[in-house]
Amino acid sequence: MTDILVTHGDMRSLGYCNRGAREWFARHQLDWSQFIDQGLPAPLLLATGDSMAEDVVAAARERMSCEVNDGR
User: Fold this and answer.
1) What predicted TM-score, i.e. pTM, was given to this entire model?
2) Rounded to the nearest 10 degrees, how much is the dihedral formed by the CA atoms of 53, 55, 58, 59?
3) 20 to 30 Å CA-CA from 12: which of 18, 62, 66, 69?
4) DSSP states of the chain as a string?
5) Residue 65's domain spans which residues?
6) Is 63 exposed, middle or buried (0-12, 13-18, 19+ CB in 10 A)?
7) pLDDT tens for residues 47-71?
8) How far is CA 67 from CA 8, 18, 21, 25, 36, in A?
9) Strand partners, 5
């Protein structure tokens, strides 16, 4: 799981808005700018213990699974 990089696209695929996400990142002391520019490792998000983090990590896993199956 350490290879999963969660991106802004993963968050948006769930319909999460930027305003709410920025507030969530601030509440959990995570770097919003880094997330937008590079993504963040799944374990960092999961360490929050928040169900929204679990959902966005699941979306990233699904994206990566599709990319592997597409030969990317």
Assistant:
1) 0.86
2) -110
3) 69
4) -TT-EE-HHHHHHTT--HHHHHHHHHHTT--HHHHHHH-EEHHHHHTT--HHHHHHHHHHHHHHHHHHHTT-
5) 5-69
6) middle
7) 999 999 999 999 999 999 887 776 6
8) 16, 25, 25, 27, 20
9) 41
